[in-house]
Amino acid sequence: MNPATPSLTTPPQSTLDQWRKNFLDLNSQKLASAREQLSPRQQAVLDALPVLLHCNGSRLPGYVAPDTPCGIVGFTPTLEHHSAVHQFARGVQIPRDPGPRVIEGIYLMGSLGSIAQSRNSDLDVWLCHDELLTDVQIEALQEKCTRIEKWADGLGTEVHFFLMNLRDFRDGQSRSADGEDCGSSQHLLLLDEFYRSALWVAGKMPRWWLIPEEYEYRADSYWAELTAQHKIDVSDWLDVGSLPTIPAGEFVGAGLWQLNKGLSNPYKSLLKILLNREYASAYPTIRPLAWDFRKQVQQGDADLLNTDAYLLMLKRLESHLNDDEAELRELIRRAFYFKTGVCLTQLTGNQRQQRRVQALEAQINEWGWTYTHLDELDRRQSWPARKVMNERNALVTQMLNGYRALAGFSEQHAESLHIKEQDLRVLGNQLFAAFRAEPGKIIDINPHIRSDMEEEKLTLNLREGIWQLIPGNWKPGDESGVLMQTPSLIETLLFARRNGLLTSHSQVALYPTHNPVTQYELRSLLQDIMDIPMPTKKHCNFDQDQQPVRWHLFVNPGVNPQQSLSRRGMQKISNRDDALGFSSARENLVQSIELLTISNWGEWQVSYYAGDATVHDALLQILNHRSHVTAKGWPEWHIHCHCQVRSVAIQKRLEELLNDLMTHLSLAKPAPYLLQTGETFHLLEYRRKQVVSHHAESLAALIQLLARPRPRFRRWQLDQHALPSSPLRLILEQGQGDEWHVWYWRQKEKIFLYVMDQCGSLHYQEQRGSDIRSTLVPVLRVLRVLNQRWATDQDQTPWSIRLSELIMDPETLAFSAEGRRIPEEAHQNAAIHVSAVTAPDTPMIFHVQDTCLSQKESGNHLIRDVRNQVLQARANSHQQPIWLSDIVIRDNYHLTRHLQLRQRIEHLLNQRSKVQNAAATIGRA
User: Fold this and answer.
1) 79 with 218, same domain?
2) Per-residue pLDDT tens for 103-132?
3) Cα separation, 560 vs 565, whole angstroms
4) Domains in the chain: how many in total?
């Protein structure tokens, strides 16, 4: 269509009058058809609506106040209107003149009067009001409409009012995506639907009726010409907007909107998404369906069928399908059939005489559908769950394909999207929540395909470690009835619960008979899962980013945590009852956790954890929500454990642990947290808004972890059961920072040394012998030398050095610490000065008294030469160990690194038979 038409030629008055008559006649027919599907009470509500909006009467439904805006332009109540009102308000007087008339037009939107109308169809009312109403007046009018909606709902009629400021509507401004309309996403697409499906009820008629197709691009100029020629009375007509084409920027928003509407009405949404895709494929010469509708009416060829909004849509879609799209064609036809709400094999009474039923039968005959096929479709409410899921997958696939095509089209042709950023985020989040598929996510298989999915009997079959969910009766070996399967028992049960198959009345059978899940455990799990509230739109928040709002931890489902101990007869031989370090073998009784995360978008996601790190990994997923914790605190959480043994103790232990961790991590600057499970240690730290974890598979590995240089001192927080009977617990809890602290513990013929620097890094070494003084003095001398030199290098006060002895209570095995004086010898220099100097990528140098020995000269014999030099300098016993008096690692001020290298060098110096090739080894230290 060429928008640059050179001149305007208006139709004769007779033609305009005929067009108006054609539209009004068709409108009357459609209203009559719509009334056929309404009950007498609903018909009365429909007839009363114009009067309730036209007048303010204290005895009329919807009354707010005498000055509430009302009055419909050009409307005069008829006897039918009076009769309808008097059914609900007997004797009420309807004012003849309501005063200022601010309602310019009332229209019914949607499927009313079409072949797709059903008894469940709502009355969606567009109320077009005066564009000059103030916000206060609009609020009062909205309140009036809300009260009418509530009144009608009490009479079994669902009515929704949409207040329209047509000036804003023509400018493309619409409601938000939370409303029942399209939001900001699809202005002209909505206008196209309005013109081909709206029923005029009262007020002004849309001027679009009188605009020829060729003048759609110049509607304002054409209308001005009609006005100038006095061919129309402008007070009779309403400018809802022109429809020259569909802009490319609307299609992404429209696709998002329809995908989200598809969650509750998939068949209708599929048809609209595919129509939008067909429109986009014709760009830029898009021909809206409303043009076909208007052409039929203006030509005088219109009837209820060839102008039916849904039949027009169906005809357009089928005409653009290829021969190889048979499955899509059948899906479109099913969608159309289901949208009508008619079950042709179940008609009763005079239903066959209805025009819409006859039209549908004619369409079905044209398709060649058999009675058997129709009967299967009409029994949709009893479809097996697997068929429902297959239908859902087919619908979702085609809807997503349609949306992807629209998104690709928009990327190519749209300079900008015609949708508000807020609506784009909300609709996108809803789409993500509904259609994103990933392992562990519980999908909804029934987007209102069946109204009720409840199954009287469900079977859980465990086959080679995989749980199978089978609705209805089942015989072992029959794979055809399996609806879903997964290694996770909890995921299986949640799937059944979320999709309505599992109810409190369902019977659940377990196969095989000898099953790791006991009947008691199954009943308990079913009760826990039935107590989980189902998601509702009211409780979902798509304005925000996705985040957890609730956790459920299912511990050891189908697992006997003491099975290995029972086989060894050890389940009762120890009084150590920590569930994460049970018995003398420190067995971790938590063997698996299935974690359900419920998000603010209503998603259910199951994460499965098993093995030695089960507790750590599951808790880490929860704790990493720390950065999102608000003033309201952590999300709600629950722990469920019903395993065969010690379930109460396991549940209580995990509840205490999780409470402790959440409380600790809620601090502004939480200290590192040490958790022990079995023989494994986990060090949890909060860094850069994330909880990071370091693992240590043994006590020796933990000591290496604690020796890492730290940037600043942070007091350690230990789980209440971590490091039992170990001096490390006392040391980590009592470390003060801003000092160097040396602890020693004597046990039999061994001495254990622990040195913590000012930042909390810990060095550990053990040594044979019982002479504590000869063991402590060399270490303390090195500390004194390092402390003095670093204080000078960094221009600071030397750190204080503290000495404590660790003492173990033989009864409780608990440790205490007692302060000790530093021996005088530690303040004196060693009789023989031995020092080592190293730096990255440089040979090591030793000084023994005034003699310098280097790796460059001695090569692999450096350690042997140093040892010989020390022995030569001694005046007596050669049996005394060799100690370093000083050690220098250039550009390094980490105490633990110096002490580690010192320990390594001293070990080599005192290994008399293994000094030959040691130089290369320490060179890499």
Assistant:
1) yes
2) 999 999 989 999 998 877 889 999 999 999
3) 10
4) 5
